[in-house]
Design brief:
Strand order of the largest sheet: 1-2-4-3
Number of helices: 9
Distance between the termini: 52 Å
Number of strands: 4
Largest sheet: 4 strands, mixed
Radius of gyration: 24 Å
Order of helices and strands: HHHHHEHHHEHEE
Length: 187
Amino acid sequence: MLLTRLYWRHYSILFVGHYVVLLVMLLGDAVRAGPRLATVILALSLAASVSAGYRAARMTVDLLERPVSARSAAIVGYMWTESIKGRDFLVVFDMKPHWLLRQSRHGFPHAANAGHIHKGWWNEAPEVTHIFAPKTDAAYCARLLSAGPEFVFEQRDGGPIPCLTSDASAYRLDRILGGTHIMVFRR
């Protein structure tokens, strides 16, 4: 049962470097052992390499062909309107729109980490100085207000980040994307 739950595709990619080193070592030993054994090991290793390469290529195609969620499609559709196409944005709760539109998160943490910050799980985390890693909503908000992008997309059960809705905020609610409950704030 456990073997069916493992992420074999992930492991095949994770250990490809080890596989190559092992292959080189085997081929080196085979050459010293004799031409017949070297031919057998070379044929087996080529078959395994072709099989692994095919599986990796198939996995990449599978990832590219996955359907886009309604949330991501709504955000991408909004950001592709002619009047705002190419402008900076941040989707606090999701990474896929950034990947689809090939735009960075402008130094803001990964969406999963942002969720942890907003829940207060990072309050006791050690200080990190070489990257922007806020530990609280207040630090996240300070960075958002000082250096945030023009558009911020937010969807939270507990409501949006407080600084987006305060009277002193540089952001104003622009709209709520239909059918998704995603709030679009604009600077």
